[in-house]
């Protein structure tokens, strides 16, 4: 018995010695890996070194992954769109509001939601809006082709009355056709527009975009805009179904970036941005701008536009930007866009840097996509769904789509959205072109520093730019749907307090 105990004690000592020896070898290996790199990969010492270095690389990789993909803190902000306890059901309707929307998908979406709020303010019954069929895209889609019409009507039942068509007895009635003043407050609609009911039963809004102020509206009107935009105005079921399928297929490649690459013919023609284009391409875009009657500005200095940051980033510039932020070449990227101007010739550099470029056209079969192909708004809706659900969203230009997606991602919990500082980036890219700067550590450091605070973290909506006056003052404000804070987002404790009041 005693002999067994001695043997057991000796074995424990041997184990302890072996453990210490292994630990010492590991420490020596770690030291030598940094101070005296070994050329031997076959020795036991090399195996230990390799193991330890792999562990370190894994830790570093995890840290880099967190930096790239982790969303910003939401700072305890949650959705709070519920109306106040004093908010009543719709009052008796004084007449019907007809709406002719204008612009692309997201310009129309914002306009429709503004008109929901206007209908509430002037006690109108809203007739399902007519979508723009005369814009650049020549899209013949009706409301029900793009949006879930029944859901829209029922979701807003406690806010306004919505009907599909004007009653037959009013079809030939004289209508008050009105261009509502841009960025107007409640007083304008209560004082000027409501008086039209004295003489008319039907008011027609000739345009719907930017008809409401971004700020300084009653809280319940602001919350109604959010309920309309984020809940009521849902895409048609078949669009939602394919959109979700595209998201699933992107997820099969891992975490992914949705890149809204606004390098399309209409945008380049409208903005006059021709940097990097051939003389023939420049001439084509100039002709489009000159022949589009409702685009008022015809003479544009392309270089000045670019220097001020008013141009969308080119595909090549986006590639440099993403690489500098640290995204590896294996990053799956969804291209949310229509046809890229110049096609493969302008996409080559981005494709070389990031081979895993996807789009709705590559993720879906021709048969799956065929019902949507000839309708720009429906195709844009698919891109919108994938962009909202992506792990990281990057817009190359701050247009209507970029603003709407950024705001929706804020509303859903401040998902990571990296907004390029185009003016600062162009300054760096011009240095690259002149050979005064090279891609590498310095450029990476500069770009990362510039964009540390441009990743979608919570902040209040920006007011007008200091010094601006008149219409320019309202125009310079951050768009309501780009950032619904503070109107439709509040901290958890305030939301809980409001819920308690509503439940009493």
Automatic annotation (TrEMBL):
It is a single-pass type II membrane protein. Keywords: Carbohydrate metabolism, Fucose metabolism, Glycoprotein, Glycosyltransferase, Membrane, Signal-anchor, Transferase, Transmembrane, Transmembrane helix. GO terms for biological process: fucose metabolic process. Pathway: Glycan metabolism. It is found in: Membrane. The keyword Amino-acid biosynthesis does not apply. GO terms for molecular function: glycosyltransferase activity. Pfam families: O-FucT. One of its GO terms (cellular component) is cytoplasm. Signal peptide: none annotated. Belongs to the glycosyltransferase GT106 family. PANTHER family: O-FUCOSYLTRANSFERASE 7, OS02G0726500 PROTEIN-RELATED. This is O-fucosyltransferase family protein.
């Amino acid at each position: 018995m005693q002999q067994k105990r001695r043997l057991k004690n000796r074995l424990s000592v041997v184990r302890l010695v072996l453990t210490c020896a292994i630990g010492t070898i590991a420490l020596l290996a770690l030291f030598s890996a940094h101070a005296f790199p070994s050329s031997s990969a076959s020795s036991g010492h090399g195996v230990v070194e390799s193991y330890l270095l792999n562990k370190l690389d894994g830790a570093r990789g995890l840290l880099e992954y967190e930096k790239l993909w982790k969303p910003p803190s939401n700072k305890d902000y949650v959705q709070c769109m519920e109306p106040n306890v004093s908010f009543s059901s719709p009052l008796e309707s004084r007449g019907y509001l007809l709406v002719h929307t204008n612009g692309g998908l997201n310009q129309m979406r914002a306009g429709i939601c503004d008109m929901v709020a206007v209908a509430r303010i002037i006690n109108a019954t809203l007739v399902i809006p007519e979508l723009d069929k005369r814009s650049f895209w020549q899209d013949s889609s009706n409301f029900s082709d793009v949006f879930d019409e029944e859901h829209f009507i029922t979701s807003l039942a406690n806010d306004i009355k919505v009907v599909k068509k004007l009653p037959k007895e009013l079809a030939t009635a004289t209508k008050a056709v009105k261009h509502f003043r841009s960025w107007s407050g409640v007083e304008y609609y209560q004082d000027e527009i409501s008086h039209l009911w004295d003489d008319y039963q039907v008011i027609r809004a000739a345009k719907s975009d930017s008809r409401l102020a971004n700020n300084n509206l009653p809280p319940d009107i602001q919350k109604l805009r959010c309920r309309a935009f984020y809940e009521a105005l849902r895409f048609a079921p078949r669009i939602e179904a394919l959109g979700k399928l595209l998201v699933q297929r992107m997820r099969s490649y891992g975490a992914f970036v949705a890149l809204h690459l606004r390098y399309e013919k209409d945008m380049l023609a409208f903005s006059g941005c021709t940097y990097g284009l051939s003389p023939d391409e420049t001439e084509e875009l100039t002709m489009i701008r000159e022949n589009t009657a409702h685009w008022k500005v015809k003479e544009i200095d392309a270089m000045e536009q670019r220097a001020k940051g008013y141009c969308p980033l080119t595909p090549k510039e986006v590639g440099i930007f993403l690489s500098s932020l640290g995204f590896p070449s294996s990053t799956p990227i969804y291209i949310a866009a229509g046809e890229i101007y110049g096609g493969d010739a302008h996409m080559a550099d981005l494709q070389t840097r990031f081979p895993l470029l996807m789009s709705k056209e590559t993720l879906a079969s021709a048969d799956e996509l065929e019902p949507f192909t000839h309708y720009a708004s429906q195709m844009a809706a698919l891109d919108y769904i994938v962009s909202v659900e992506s792990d990281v969203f990057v817009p190359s230009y701050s247009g209507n789509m970029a603003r709407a997606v950024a705001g929706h991602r804020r509303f859903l919990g401040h998902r990571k959205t990296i907004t390029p500082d185009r003016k600062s980036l162009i300054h760096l890219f011009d240095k690259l072109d002149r050979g005064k700067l090279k891609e590498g550590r310095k450029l990476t450091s500069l770009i990362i520093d510039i964009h540390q605070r441009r990743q979608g973290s919570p902040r209040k909506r920006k007011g007008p730019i200091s010094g601006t006056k008149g219409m320019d003052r309202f125009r310079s404000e951050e768009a309501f749907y780009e950032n619904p804070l503070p109107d439709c987002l509040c901290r958890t404790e305030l939301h809980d307090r409001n819920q308690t009041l509503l439940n009493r």
